[in-house]
Amino acid sequence: MFIIRPVAIDTYPENMAFLPRTGSSYGAEQFQALKKIEICGGDASILATLAILDDDHLLEPGEIGLGEQAFRRLGLPAGTSVTIAQARPPASLDAVRRKIGGALLDAADINAIIADIAHYRYAPMEIAAFLVACAGSMSRAETLALTRAMADAGERLHWPGPLVVDKHCIGGIPGNRTTMIVVPIVAAHGLTMPKTSSRAITSPSGTADTMEVLANVELSAARIQEIVAQENAVLAWGGRVNLSPADDILISVERPLGIDTAEQMVASILSKKLAAGATHLVIDMPVGPTAKVRSEAAAVKLRKLFEYVAGQLGMVIDVVITDGSQPIGRGIGPVLEARDVMQVLRGEADAPADLREHALLLAGRVLDLDPALPGGQGKRRATELLDNGAALAAMHRLMREQGPPPQVAVLGPLVHDITAPSAGHVSAIDCHRIARIARLAGAPMDKGAGIDLFCKVGAHVAVGQPLYRIHAAAPAGLTYARELAAEDDGFSLLP
Fold first, then answer.
1. Which residues are catalytic?
2. Longest dimension (CA), the chain
3. What is the pLDDT of residues 283-341, one digit of tens each?
4. DSSP label at 388?
């Protein structure tokens, strides 16, 4: 028996357990054998990767330390007695091995794999093996089964009525924070739009990160349902309500490996929409030389896969192929993006015109899903609700109901301007490069960090004219961002 003790170490996404090498009933040889253990206390149990401590001051004899994730997931109070045993390899690994060999997996195989991943029974190396095997070859039937399995592995939200709308952008375009404009427009119209969004993984900000500048986004499922019942919509972080939890684990391994196949993208997006209770979905698919989707042919292929899987799930989908050649809006990073969003909602004269127009296009496509609205009138109705202040009022109500943000976020005070090395016109902007610079500045962890764009494609600039301004909250962030921008600022100029 051991006594559990929380250890303040963030080991996301893994469960980690810590035992002292000396002072317990296990010998060193047994420690080395127990690479993965099962920890049990009452009806609660978890699997965890075991690390051995050689510092006698961190744990007392008879204690087992649990990293932050393992302690939270086990759900037992500190001081509880638990037992440990060597964990058996998940049986579903046999299916992974068959997939590596080129076999097609059936729904039962995929359900077992995803259930084990969602319960943290897989090590990152085993998850990587599954992802790489799927990246090599994955059928439409496997993609559909993966989507269903991921949605079923977590919580599901249910809503009254036959029409629950949602909107999603596949990403890759800095500043494309249209969701925070679309949602209040749709709410003001009266459609149900319970928007659960993600935090950034490799981008300078996710919708949840930007919304958290204005309001609390960590809402329980019960609170989300209360707000939607009153305001028709919500803008919350999906991770708080455990929607498609296996997807978050898969993404944590996919991103460092650079794996982002069409099949895994479709399963990731649609599983979360299915779990969130959406019946109708608009997908924003930007296409551009530095976007996630880089050609019209690739966009059409991806659109057809979305349509097939969504159709099999009983979901109505509208895939909108849009211009992904450059960032949208001016701000890149939570505080700067929140500024742009509120400027558009307030109808300010200097609000980013491209962000406004893109949001109206997508809001119009969502409103066109309303059977009560005459065909083709969605964008006109969206423009009316934005211009007459109804959308702004809806956003203010959402901010009030969701509550204040956990802390006040301010624009990073440390700044550096990146200037044009020569005169000419801007012929291209590298979305990927600009996003990397903004992240090195500190976004999204430092909500005030990021980039404020002064020029877009087609603009004429003089030598020495500022192209954009880097904002940072810490000197190190500003230094890293400046160094990356000095190598390549992301702007292409032609005389």
1. 260
2. 75
3. 999 999 999 999 999 999 999 999 999 999 999 999 999 999 999 999 999 999 999 99
4. T
